[in-house]
Amino acid sequence: MADKSQAEANAAPPRDLAQGTHPRDSGAPSRVVIVTGMSGAGKTLALKALEDFGFEAVDNLPLSLLSSLVPPGDGPARCLAIGIDIRTRGFSIDALLAAIDRLAAEDHTEVRAIFLDCDDDVLTRRYTETRRRHPLALDRPLLDGIHHERGLLSALRGRPYVTVIDTSNLPPAEFKRSLALKLGLDTETGPVVFVTSFAYRNGLPREADLVFDARFLANPHYVETLRPLTGRDEEVARHVAADPDFDAFFNSMTNLLAPLLPRFAAEGKSYLTIAVGCTGGRHRSVFVAERLAAWLRESGARVELRHRELEEGGR
Q1: Over the stretch 110-135, which tens digit does the pLDDT of each residue have?
Q2: Given 29, 66, 86, 131, which residue has the most CB atoms within 10 angstroms?
Q3: Domain 6-182 is classified in which CATH homologous superfamily?
Q4: pTM of the model
C-alpha cells in the first residue's frame, strides 16, 4: 500500500470523481482499476496519479490474493488501483485474465484495466538512462526482452474492458490528464473525444479507435513556400481546403461520426480516439484534425486535440 503522510491521513477523505461518491460509500460498487502493460511504460506514475483521485494503490500483489482485496457485497465500497505486470508473483496472461473475470463477475464490483504501451525505442532509452535491467532481459539483449514481453502481453490488449494509453510522448501532467479522462475521473459531463494527427511513416497511434487517411489530399510539402509551415497556418489551410475532393471527404467523415457519437455514449463509452494521418504529419492531417475538432466542439462534444509529430518536432 502506498505511504500517506499524516496530513493526508487527517484530511477529508477524497471523493470518487467519476461517481460523485465517497470511495467508502456502501451504496456504490467497488471500483477496481488494474494497471498493467509494458515494463517501463509508466505503471508507477499511473498508480500515483490514481492515488490523487482517491484510489488506494497496491503494486505487484500476487495474483492469488487479488480477489481478497475486494470486499463482499455488503461491505464498504472501495476504489482500488492495482499494479500488475510480468514481475508479479504467479503472473501469466491466463491467470491475470481469470482473476479479472472473477472480479468482473461480482455484482458489486466495477473492473477496468489500463494497458500502458510505449514505443520500443523509448523503452530502450528509458532503461538505458536509468540503468535498470528489464525483467525479461537478464540474460539477453534489452530489445529481445522488450519484444518477448510484448508478445506475452498481446492477448490482453483486445479485451473489451482494457483501455490502451501510449505513454511514448506524454509528459507526466498530460499522462495524468489522459488517465483521468479515459477513466471518467473528471467532474465534467459528456463524451470526451481525443483527436490526434500523425504521420503514417511513424506508425499509427496505438490508442486510436478510428483512423482517417488524408494522404490523397493536395500536399503542401511540394509547395516551397508552404513546406516550412504547418496545418495550423492559414496558407496551408487554404491550400488543402482548395482540393476539389476535400469537402466531400470532410462531409463524409462528419456524416459517419454524427450518429456514432451518441451511440458510443449510450453504450457507456466515455471516450473515443480519432486519428487523422498523412505522410509527414505536419500539413494535411494537422489541418483536417483542427477542422474536425472544431466541428466536434460545435456538436457539443468535449474535445482534446494534439498533433503528435508537431509535439515531437517543435512548433
Answers
A1: 888 999 999 999 999 998 888 888 88
A2: 66
A3: P-loop containing nucleotide triphosphate hydrolases (3.40.50.300)
A4: 0.58
